[in-house]
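re: that complex we talked abt at group meeting.

here r the seqs, copy pasted straight from the sheet so there may be weird spacing, ignore it
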Amino acid sequence: MNTDIITPIVMGIMLGGLYALIANGLSLVFGVMRLINLAHGDLVVLGSYLAYAILTLLGLDPVAGLIISIPVMFCLGFLIQKYLMGRAFAISSEAPLIIAFGISLIIQNANQVAWTPLSRALNTAYSQKSFFIGELQLPLIYLLDFIAGIIVMLSLHAFLKGTYLGRAIAAAAQDKRAARLMGINTDRVYGYAFAIAMISSAIAGVFLGMTFPFTPTSGTSFLTIAFGTVIIGGLGSTLGTFLGGIMLGVFQTLGGWFFGPASQMLVVYLIVFLILAVRPRGLLGRR
Amino acid sequence: MTDREAQLEIRNMDVFHGTFQALWDISLEVRRGEMLALIGANTSGKSTLMDTISGLLHPAKGTVVFEGRDISRLDCHEIVPLGITQIPEGRRVFPEMTVQENMMMGSYGPGARPKAKTNLERAYSLFPILKERRKQPAGTLSGGEQQMLAIGRGLMADPRLMLIDEMSLGLAPIVIDELFKALRKIKEEGITILFVEQNVKRTLHEADRAYILETGRVTLSGTAAELREDAQIIKAYFGIEECN
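got the structure back, here u go
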């Protein structure tokens, strides 16, 4: 009994690394632009499909394929912010929400046309392997998810704290007018913030695709997971998002362990609901 | 003071907020190295004037010329590197950043970055308390300290003209004295200062010259000494400080 419960906890922690990876982009875009990016899940899945295309067409390993998909996603993010979201913000605060929903529909349907509704997966030699912690046997990919989650969190943190552009993004998030008075071109900084969120989504898409099979409509469920992660972790800190992801992962696997796999996500969302009711700023959020 | 060259010149400028005209046919000049005050009630357009110089707003008519260059079409991020910095009303420090991180944001412009270290020392020697608190989040500072930080952060941009909006608002007299002492030091370094203050008496005591704004128009201007002599001015505008 005692060793049994350790398995779901360890699995949950590692899966949480993937959830944090998925949620980073949503958290960054909301934290900086106050935009609830409804297309976020689909953009992550677009990252998975990009990796799938690179894998099948070029035979390039999905992680190595990031050399191609990161610049593509970066530019796409910058253009979405500059030509769609930036202009929509000038109209009203609801307009970008509708634009995001539109982008979501376009990506889902484009993926249906390009890849059929059948589920795909990024199969590599190592994504099928297992490893042992003591007597526990775990999928190797879960460990890789966790490591990728830590690396992206630390990189994002170092970028936001340690570079002029990163600090400009943080400044624009805290006080747009003051940021402009510092000589920051906030429109351009918003473009970079979206673009950097997309780098994170490209990476999330790769690890997602190696962990789970995906379809053109998978984005919706991963958007929900990203929301849950951000709600638990609270907005505004990369560490909060990471810990939020871990907690969500553990809630899910423990929920499955106690109540069966069918109700594991129900448990997660009941907890998210409870947190929203009791502590709306998130368990770790400051505001 | 009157024979100094004009550093900033505004000619026949109209500025709108949407459909509302906030400034009407404004003409004024800021002379290099002086301390110039704008005096007026809350809705007289002082902040609008500062925002237009900073490039947050653009004139519908007229020009803003800084050191021989027309800047009326430039945006804020293009104007700051030219040497104009605004210390906004309400300080607007970045609350979640530390004091030092706030300071470093001031030197965001590529031209100011190489001088960040010397400018940081300069700002810290002007306000030693900021150096003591450099690792503290700016949101935890007192109002006076936040104002010092806002001024110090402005200095980090290496400006030649500083626009200071409502520096004393809500601060204790002893703190205001300290802030004005700092402004005089900044002026001694050759930085021009254009400031807005509610306290007319204090303003005319500190400034070299002043412009008086009424509902978006310049109604009077002159040296502080001239305006101090003008009993009518004192009578007409003394009430301003009480109603705020």
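couple things i noticed - The mean pLDDT of chain B is 92. The first strand of chain B starts at residue 6 and ends at 17.
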